[in-house]
Design brief:
Number of helices: 1
Strand order of the largest sheet: 1-2-3-4
CATH topology of the domain at 39-136: Glycoprotein, Type 4 Pilin
Number of strands: 4
Distance between the termini: 88 Å
Largest sheet: 4 strands, antiparallel
CATH superfamily of the domain at 39-136: Glycoprotein, Type 4 Pilin
Helix content: 25-40%
Length: 141
Amino acid sequence: MKIHKKKEMGFSLIELLIVMVIMGLLAALVGPRMFGKVGKSKQNAARSQMALLETALDTYRLDVGKYPSDLQSLRTSDGEKWDGPYLPKAVPKDPWGHPYVYKRTDNGEVEMISLGANGTEGGEGEDKDISSRGGDEEDTG
């Protein structure tokens, strides 16, 4: 009478190490490419938010006759011609959590600026300032 031993099933240590090395190589090759797109998507989100804020500012100007002195006026005002609120929620911060810079220019227009990831003027890459008046700001710092 033969007794058959049941063969243990599983992976050897070498097989597990090979799989871990392959996964590490894939992560090293793919990871930086994927995380590099996060900064670009935040910049695109900032541009989209600024466009929406400018639409609200333009609507305010059409109703009241001039641009507001600050962004909070889009939510609350006691002005006679004010027909808001012009934003459904509080004024948003940029994708990096910094407030947008709102400027009224000399020619009567408005400009929105996101100061990028570092929250200060100037910078390159993800730290670069983003302006609503035709793209990115030049380095100023």
